[in-house]
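Quarterly update from the structural biology core.
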Amino acid sequence: MKNLNFIDKLVFLINSVVALLLLLSYGLSYVPPKTFSFLSVLSLSVPVLIILNMAFAIYWLIKLKKQLLLSILVLGLGYNYVVSFYKFSSQTQVSDFSFSMMSYNVRLFNLYNSIKDDHIPEKIENFILDKSPSILCFQEYDSDTSLKFELYPYSYITANSSRYTSELAIFSKHKILNSATIEFPKSSNNAIFSDVIVKTDTIRVYNLHLQSSGIDPNVETLDSEQSNRLINRLAATFTAQQDQAELVASHISNSPYKVILCGDFNNTIYSYVYRIIKGDMLDAFEESGSGFGRTFIFKYFPFRIDFILANAQIKVGKFSSFPELPYSDHFPIFTEFILED
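Predicted structure, tokenized:
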């Protein structure tokens, strides 16, 4: 520090705070939100903290100062977090996959005209016809839609008991043996599952939509009062998600079949709920994806909050996301699977 000028000393002070916050955030996926709900909000800032620490490391490298070791050390300690933020291409190409799956939060097929385009439902339908997944899972489905999805003779859709209930749907080209809903307490969100016969095997397919904060991602600025309300709302959301995630994880642990799970988690890979639900399953993006894996429209950061997970006995082949598709506030994700003997 003696060899640093005033500006560099100030930069290193900020660097130290940012490095400490990133170091603390590494452990947040192990802290139940009910224990420290406000701290759980910090998990959303992990991508920003990673970028900032990289920037500080580059700054000190250019200046040939040993202070670069601080951020390098913190980034190294969180290696798995850093490499999960951005994936270089690792896609597994297969010519003979067993089945494919798509997960898509369609925001009620633009029922309330959030996107100024009267043809969004037809565009979504044409996209799905083109990709033709074996199993198709929707979040924020609208059972009153005129779309038929005739490629799929089997389906399970949650009952539309209220316009305030977030509907889920599973469509399948393969026969469905059994289906049911997992109700989340005191929430309009829920999860569903269907037992699907693929070749000679049976796969339990989960589709879930965890609690949403209802925050507008297009808000430009926040004053201090709005910021406090935002943090309080996120803390309450993550607390509710904890109950929902633990309920789903418990249900999965009792599954008699191999499991594939997809859905809108409304949270990131750095969160407690993601770790609890994922368990020892494979994340299809981490196995075969590339880039940031962005699945949600947010102006400032490439958030990945939609996931497809699978038991290790089910090999992940091709994974694709479609961040160029402007049909919802989420982007669809698509995966091909190979059933291992």
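The mean pLDDT is 89.
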